[in-house]
């Protein structure tokens, strides 16, 4: 972002907020109440949570207008770089007896013309069966349900994890106060987070939801978009279970990622 663009945006933000204050005849008490809420979110470590609930989907939609390839999705506040690199066969790090139904997530990474991309890195993170994220919420082992793995020579990948539940925004903090003041509920639909990278292609931030799940039409962060909702298929064939060393039915989800070469991204951005 150039200094000129930063200055233009900051000046317009200032103008827009001053116009907004005059429009609503904001009193000094109301002004102080707003700054107190912002300070409280920082003290509670909820500032990204609050901003991402209200604004990240808009920035993502704007990015999607000029994006070829798979639709991009909100990252949310819980991504952490440098998750453990996994060894095949890929299983996201988890506690022994991790609660939740087993989920097999598989798919393929290709370029827009369908060429398989070998060695693409998939960086995945998700909530546990209680809707909590490791390295963020206490009492969960470090890097639980977070990991990086690669597509194979034919662009395909497969990783084993658990089916996450819907995620509930913490109710007790300042973000919760803002949402309850607005009369909103606190839930996001169940989802998997991924970043997909390849040296010659632009990074994709994705988030996948499950068809038929709760809150798909009322996500508190308004992050669900066409093309991000997958089919969760239940598998209970005894032979399939035995082949995978499983003793109870599991679920399977498929999603194919399309990355865009750097050059094509640059051309579209300039257009
Ligand atoms: C999430 O994807 O986990 C998330 C996104 C926005 C706000 C809070 C959480
Ligand atoms: Fe999330």
Query: Structural class from helices and strands?
Result: alpha/beta
Distance between the termini: 17 Å
* Discrete helix count: 6
The main sheet orders its strands as 1-5-2-12-11
> What is the β-strand count?
12
Oligomer: single chain
C-alpha Rg (nearest Å): 21 Å
Quick recap of the structure?
Helices cover 30% and strands 24% of the residues.
Task: Describe the structure using short key phrases.
five-stranded mixed sheet; 271 residues; globular; binds fe (iii) ion; binds benzoic acid; 30% helix; alpha/beta
Molecular structure report:
This protein has 271 residues and is an alpha/beta fold. It is built from six helices and twelve strands. It has helices spanning 3-24, 28-43, 47-65, 174-181, 238-243, 262-270; strands at residues 90-91, 102-110, 121-125, 146-150, 156-162, 167-168, 187-188, 191-198, 201-210, 229-230, 233-235, 250-258.
Topology:
Layout (H helix, E strand, L loop, with lengths): L2 H22 L3 H16 L3 H19 L24 E2 L10 E9 L10 E5 L20 E5 L5 E7 L4 E2 L5 H8 L5 E2 L2 E8 L2 E10 L18 E2 L2 E3 L2 H6 L6 E9 L3 H9 L1
Parallel strand pairs: 1-5, 2-12, 9-10
Antiparallel strand pairs: 2-5, 3-4, 3-8, 6-7, 8-9, 11-12
Fe (iii) ion (FE) binds next to strand 8.
């Amino acid at each position: 972002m150039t200094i000129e663009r930063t200055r233009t945006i900051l000046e317009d933000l200032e103008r827009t907020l001053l116009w907004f204050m005059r429009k609503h005849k904001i009193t000094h008490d109301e002004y102080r109440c707003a700054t107190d809420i912002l300070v409280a979110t920082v003290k509670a470590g909820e500032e990204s949570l609050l901003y991402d609930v209200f604004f990240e989907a808009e920035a993502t939609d704007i990015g999607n207008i000029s994006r070829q390839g798979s639709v991009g999705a909100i990252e949310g506040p819980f991504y952490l770089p440098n998750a453990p690199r996994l060894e095949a066969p890929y299983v996201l790090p988890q506690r022994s007896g991790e609660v939740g139904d087993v989920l097999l997530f598989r798919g393929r990474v290709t370029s827009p013309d369908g060429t398989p991309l070998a060695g693409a890195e998939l960086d995945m993170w998700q909530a546990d069966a209680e809707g909590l994220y490791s390295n963020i919420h206490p009492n969960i082992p470090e890097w639980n349900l977070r990991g990086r793995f690669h597509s194979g020579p034919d662009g395909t990948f497969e990783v084993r994890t658990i089916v996450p539940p819907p995620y509930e925004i913490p109710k007790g903090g300042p973000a919760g106060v803002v949402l309850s003041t607005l009369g909103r509920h606190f839930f996001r639909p169940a989802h998997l987070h991924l970043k997909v990278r390849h040296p010659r292609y632009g990074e994709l931030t994705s988030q996948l939801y499950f068809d038929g799940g709760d809150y798909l039409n009322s996500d508190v962060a308004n992050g669900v978009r066409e093309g991000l909702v997958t089919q969760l298929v239940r598998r209970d064939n005894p032979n399939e279970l035995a082949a995978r060393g499983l003793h109870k039915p599991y679920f399977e989800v498929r999603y194919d990622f399309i990355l865009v070469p750097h050059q094509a991204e640059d051309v579209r951005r300039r257009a």
